Amino acid sequence: MRDLVEIGMGRTARQAFDLDDVEIVPSRRTRSSKVVSTAWQIDAYRFGLPMVTHPTDAIVSPANAIAIGKLGGLGVLNAEGLWARHSNVDEALGRVLRVAENLEEPSSLVRELQELHAAPLRSELIAEAIKTVRDAGVTVAARVSPQHAAELTPDLLAAGVEILVVQGTIVSAEHVSQDDEPPLNLKDFIAELDVPVVVGGVSDYRTAMHLMRTGAAGVIVGHGYTAGVTSTDRVLGIGVPMATAIIDAAAARRDYLDETGGRYVHVLADGGVTCSGELAKAIACGADAVMLGAPLAAASDAPGKGLYWTSAAAHPSLPRSRIAAGPDIEVDLETLLFGPSSDPDGVVNLFGALRRAMAKTGYSDLKEFQKVGLTVRG
Amino acid sequence: MRDLVEIGMGRTARQAFDLDDVEIVPSRRTRSSKVVSTAWQIDAYRFGLPMVTHPTDAIVSPANAIAIGKLGGLGVLNAEGLWARHSNVDEALGRVLRVAENLEEPSSLVRELQELHAAPLRSELIAEAIKTVRDAGVTVAARVSPQHAAELTPDLLAAGVEILVVQGTIVSAEHVSQDDEPPLNLKDFIAELDVPVVVGGVSDYRTAMHLMRTGAAGVIVGHGYTAGVTSTDRVLGIGVPMATAIIDAAAARRDYLDETGGRYVHVLADGGVTCSGELAKAIACGADAVMLGAPLAAASDAPGKGLYWTSAAAHPSLPRSRIAAGPDIEVDLETLLFGPSSDPDGVVNLFGALRRAMAKTGYSDLKEFQKVGLTVRG
Amino acid sequence: MRDLVEIGMGRTARQAFDLDDVEIVPSRRTRSSKVVSTAWQIDAYRFGLPMVTHPTDAIVSPANAIAIGKLGGLGVLNAEGLWARHSNVDEALGRVLRVAENLEEPSSLVRELQELHAAPLRSELIAEAIKTVRDAGVTVAARVSPQHAAELTPDLLAAGVEILVVQGTIVSAEHVSQDDEPPLNLKDFIAELDVPVVVGGVSDYRTAMHLMRTGAAGVIVGHGYTAGVTSTDRVLGIGVPMATAIIDAAAARRDYLDETGGRYVHVLADGGVTCSGELAKAIACGADAVMLGAPLAAASDAPGKGLYWTSAAAHPSLPRSRIAAGPDIEVDLETLLFGPSSDPDGVVNLFGALRRAMAKTGYSDLKEFQKVGLTVRG
Amino acid sequence: MRDLVEIGMGRTARQAFDLDDVEIVPSRRTRSSKVVSTAWQIDAYRFGLPMVTHPTDAIVSPANAIAIGKLGGLGVLNAEGLWARHSNVDEALGRVLRVAENLEEPSSLVRELQELHAAPLRSELIAEAIKTVRDAGVTVAARVSPQHAAELTPDLLAAGVEILVVQGTIVSAEHVSQDDEPPLNLKDFIAELDVPVVVGGVSDYRTAMHLMRTGAAGVIVGHGYTAGVTSTDRVLGIGVPMATAIIDAAAARRDYLDETGGRYVHVLADGGVTCSGELAKAIACGADAVMLGAPLAAASDAPGKGLYWTSAAAHPSLPRSRIAAGPDIEVDLETLLFGPSSDPDGVVNLFGALRRAMAKTGYSDLKEFQKVGLTVRG
Fold first, then answer.
1. Looking at the whole model, is its pTM more than 0.90?
2. Sign of CA dihedral D266, D267, D271, D277
3. Which CATH number is correct for D17-376, 3.40.718.10, 3.20.20.70, 3.50.80.10, 3.40.47.10?
4. Any idea which fold C4-376 has?
5. B64-78, pLDDT tens digit by residue?
6. From C72's CA, which of A27, B367, C149, D65 has a CA 20 to 30 Å away?
7. Rounded to whole angstroms, how far apart are CA atoms B367 and B360?
């Protein structure tokens, strides 16, 4: 039943599909959008939208995290990004924007970001950002890399983080390293925490299963691949066709649920979503929520002023993300999420579109919609 | 025999094909084009061409509906469009054209159309349009959305509509809704009418079968997808590869014919046709008639003066169609349909080309031509 | 073993491949190009190259037919083209070139050609052209359409034609027509002639087999499809993926050889060849010779001065060919065919490249090279 | 298990894949990049990097060969290139660069190169180049064509060559030729030499196996295909989808190892690598080392000053390589290989990226990494 393709003598490969390779097929009674729910809950936290942000300064400032929270989503602050290194982030972002305005080449933009990230981490800065969000009454989340998780987490918890995101390009349950770089044992790390932890990214069933066994509340699939922005495939040879990756992680979720007799680990899809149609497809493939990046950069009130990059853009020696401009649409975040829209290409009214996709295919909640039929292009 | 592809662990999808993925294969005696018939009949109405228009103001005014009828096709007035809302449609269309001339962005054009559609429906206006067409002695058809079908139909019938088209992006035989939005039971609705009803769109066998069981005379496959114009795939994740969708609906037609011992429900293909070759392929896949849109916008006497949009372009909160310019060819409608042509790309002499495709493959009528052999690109 | 794909419920299609979908695989001892022969013989006529021209005025004038013949190929005069209608063809072609220089749109060019072809056929003109070629001592061939074959052939034979080409877009052994258009029975027609007849185009095994049974010496596969020039797919829905079409016709050749106990009918590939690599692939798929069109238009001494069109470009009501400029390379015909080349893209030294492809894969004659291994892109 | 596709009646073809058709799938514990080794050894020669250069003057001068050697790779001088024909190579290259600056067409650049290669081979020149490299203390390698191998090799050995590369587009163990062109019997040729010999290119299992049986230390797969530069597919019809070609050659390596009870012949991949991700994929498919070309031309200190061509570009009658500009990145060779990088597209820090790809997928040496899982695009 596994469709293996012989790609050479004695070597087979699975076929893998991207979100834009698949189509949703309506085949049931239609419903009114009004009877559709997009509610999502992870651990004790309940959200109106199945939306978590990619942890990039291009879309998440404390102010934006608050706005996102009030609209029903979860903004994730990058605890190793600009808000953790600079007291005046507006000025720092301004430097990137000026380079972009001068139409300089991709590497100049990356270099600017690398320089800004060469400033040391200051725990009091990110703590203040976290408190700002928490004080506004919305759920507060922050991301750390696996390398710095052990070191940075205590301060984040002290500052009031409610959901911890441990995220790198590829994360495994165990990391092999030399003496000067202590490995992170995720299982031990998570066991000691009182807050739910979301970890990733992964791109296959097996690693997803291992991460689920660490006690994580959620597993991230993918690493924020977005057309024109991230290029992990060109840099590392590791591309993640998201439709297949999400489906595989959902299979791990199902098997782990069976193995544990009922522990449900959420699957968050990070990448491949550039429009509302692909957002719907990510859920249709089995994602519990979508980690949105580039689409949110189009909001007129986004910190990056229309520019987008992933958290891998600032790596000091091997950056894996361009800094690119998104669609120029001049709507605020609320309109971006809920409309109304005059845009015919699926970049405005993202969740109105999701509701309508669910309604037109006859599903009333996200969990049900994960079973909708799909076709692939022949 | 069903070709299922494993797109991830435990999840399969059918392969689906678009019209431009397939090719017609000649394999019989050739015929003279003169011995080929393109006649089509639905209910008591007989047409020289298997052509119904997409119900958009960009191509159908009362005057154009008359011209189309006299040339052998069926023009469908949009009973919820500009002719139902504005007493001076020329002026209204002029506003859209002016925005287009100023080269403004897609959303500005959509916004203009949304504003024009915010004007209230006035039943006397569409009634007058219908009478104008009927008085000219051609078959008159009008389109309503499922939401407004019950409300608007009585006036349309009173005005003399002969064929009713109930059309939304995705239509099912039963619609689930809340109290404030009464569901349309298509079976009951159709049973009470004396005129033939065409309903859609659908994209799969099962929904097509359900719609056939409502008593419809015809079922529409697709939702007017045209390259560069409609983007339901980007907005809702619902793309409809038309070759497969038409073949599946034709399978439903065959099974329903068997189930009922002889009731033949017509399959109308709405989308994927940008040239005469694709028109021929739509029939070759099993369509009884083609719902033409963008190709007709190229006529010099089209109301949209070369611009094209589908009826989904004016949706107030979630538009799913660009407003785009078609090929600039400067021929009138009659030449567009019957030639002669100096255009080498299949946009002029649409039905002369269909006749020739049938002749070259040795078929003399449309029903036979539905069986012609096809290949797919490897 | 037949790879059928389900393209919809109850409908299957064969996969078909174009020349640029396949690759030749070297897997034997290499040879020196010097020990390779590209000789080809049809009926009593022997050629140094497996090359026949597409019968278009863009590449074949009497002078060019002589030059082609002296270099080892066979030029085919279009007996229904400009040389059969105008006493001053240079002036006629000049009109087309002037329209092209003014950068007018495709349909203007086609219209010019249509007007030039509206002039009546004059048998004395084409007779003179044929005699000119024959007097130069090279084999002389001319093309007629199936519609005019019976009427025009006697004069062509009287003028000295040695190989007759009966060519339309799609030709079948029997053509069904009305009384005012007498059908051509190819079998009877060919039986009465003393010269070898080449007929086509066909695109499938069955029609190829039927044409072989008419007594034809050669069957043409395809209808001159060339990227950017011919658009039979867009106009009629009939595209011919040439790799599969050639292989199928070669299968018919094999089966007909068996059926007749030894009559070998040549397969000529007309289309899909834009460079020397595709020329080699056409032979590798089983063609005995290639009907070259667009690549020859690049010669500095071609009548079309770099413009190319197929014989279907001038159809009065349904043209199926653009008039397009080829590569601008400034070499004469001899260099185009035999080099030397400074062009890295396979448009110069066409037959030097074929020899080298045969040598590198270890084959010494064309018939053997038809068995070389192929891969397809996965 | 062999996936054969029917491409026409009675003719099948294997599916073949390029490096950019496949993706590496992480599915094990991750590692620190610091515990990863990229060491490679062939015969007695040990290298820090699995990198050999394509033997083109665009990237290898004696000075660059020394620099490459000191950084851990192996530069291969083209013993039939400019360094073997001109005493002032800088001036010769300057002529090519001037033509390029004047934006002349591809064939003008090729013509310039052809003229430069029309100068006679002078053994004292290449001997001097070899000695220069050897005196610097790095391993010295030079390439000869199969045609001139017998004639040129003695002088190269006398000059101190340590690894001999016998390379043509397609090389077989035996070459059939006429009397005036004595064949090279590779087995006899290699048996008489004391230095390890690397031979190629090949594109299939069988030819690879035959070359391994000649006693070669390494076999080259491919012929330097690089997007935009080489066009052997267009010229000869012989394209080499590199993922499949490398896998097949690795299968030959395995079978030959078994057949000989332990002789390990290295597989060098020459082509298809334009970025670090594809470099990683080449190893992942089974290559022991990669023959790098175009990516090295981007170094600010490359002899071609950013231009790139393969050794087939200067063929006097049938060139098969464009001369093209690579990415404009302004970093030196060391940074190109080891970073740090501000480039997000995989063209800088090529081997830092390889280490990271190995680390992220959990492998610690190249031989192990050849087993990493792969997917193909569906």
1. yes
2. negative
3. 3.20.20.70
4. TIM Barrel (3.20.20)
5. 999 999 999 999 999
6. C149
7. 16
